[in-house]
Amino acid sequence: MPSVHRSPSRPLQYGLLAVLALYACGRGPSGFGHGGTDRDDTWLPGDTGTTDTGPDTADDTATDDTAADTADDTGDDTGGADTAEPFTGEGYDRGDVAYNLVAPNQQGAEWRLYQHAGAPVVLVFGYAESYAFQEISGYLPELMREFATYGLTIAVTMFYDPLGYPAAQDDAAAWAAGYGLDTVLYDPESSIQGAWCGGTQVKTYLIDGDMVIRWSNLESTSQAQLRDQIADLVY
Fold first, then answer.
1. What secondary structure does DSSP assign to 181-234, as a single string?
2. Are residues 105 and 195 in the same domain?
3. Domain count, the chain
4. What b/e string do you get for 148-161 counting C-beta neighbours within 10 Å, with b at 16 or more?
5. Would you state the pLDDT for residue 11?
6. In a domain, 5, yes or no
7. Per-block average pLDDT, block size 10, for the chain (235 residues)?
C-alpha cells in the first residue's frame, strides 16, 4: 500500500491530530480502543422504533415484531425476512442505479444507502493515511451544513486506519469525532472496497434521490468541485 508523502495543510493537521489523540485516549490492552455506543439487546439492524408486538404494517420500523415484514418495512425483524429492495442495483458507473451499500457505522449500527432515497447522498471511500481522504473529510461538514435543507446525506467509508490496519468500529468512531462527521462506515468483511473503490485509495460519489450515480471522481476532489456537483443537482 503506497505511502502518501504530501504534507497536509494546518487545518488538516489539526483534524488528523484530533483523530490520533482519540486513538491514544481510547486504547485498551489489545492496542485499540473500545468506543462505540452500547445498544439495548432488543435492537436489530435497520430498526428505529420501540417494542411492537403486533403485525408489521407498511410503515412499521419497530424492533420486536411478531409477524413477517412487509414490502415497505425498513426493519429486519424477528417475525420474518424482508422482501425485495426498493431499487435494482445496476453498477458503479455514472448513470447506473447504485447497488445498496450496507455497512456498520461508527456506533456499530447497520447503515443502508437505500434508506436515504429521496435526497442526494455523497459517498466517500478511502484510506485514512491518504492526504486526499483527509482533505475531503475535513471539508465535508461544511458542505453538509450548506445543503442540509435539501436533505443531503454524507457517508464516509474508511478501509484502513491511520496506521495501515483494516479499519474497525473504534477507528470509524475516532475519525467521525476528529473530523466532525455524522456517518463513518467501515468494512469488516472486506467486501466493499473492490466494488466501490477498485484499486484506488480514494473515490467520491454523488447519488441522487432515485439512487442513480450522477457523478464520481477518483482520488483528490476539491471542496469547490464537489460543491458545484451538489449544487447542480439540487438547484
1. -S-EEE-TTS-SHHHHTTTSSEEEEEE-TTSBEEEEEES---HHHHHHHHHHHH
2. yes
3. 2
4. eeeebbbbbbbbbb
5. 47
6. no
7. 44 51 43 34 36 44 42 41 75 97 98 97 97 97 98 98 95 98 96 91 97 96 98 96
Q: Give residue 47's Cα distance to chain centre.
A: 17
Tell whether 79 and 110 lie within a shared domain.
no
Three-state DSSP class for residue 35: coil
Give the span between the Cα atoms of 148 and 142, in whole angstroms. Answer: 10
**Set of cell numbers at residue 140:** 465535508
CA within 13 Å, CB half, 106: 22
Distance CA 168, CA 158 (A): 9
Alpha carbon distance 1, 129 (integer Å): 10
* Alpha-helical regions (H) of the chain: 10-26, 131-146, 169-179, 193-196, 223-234
Is there a contact between 78 and 91 (Cβ–Cβ < 8 Å)? no
Is the pTM higher than 0.85? The answer reads: no
Structural domain containing residue 123? 10-38+87-234
Structural domain contains residue 143: yes
Among the candidates 27, 51, 84, a domain finishes at 84
Residue 18: predicted pLDDT: 53
Say which residue the cell 473492490 belongs to.
194
**Which residue in 63, 87, 88, 68 sits closest to 79, CA to CA?**
68
In this structure, the chain runs to a length of: 235
Backbone angles phi, psi at 46, to 5 degrees: 90, -10
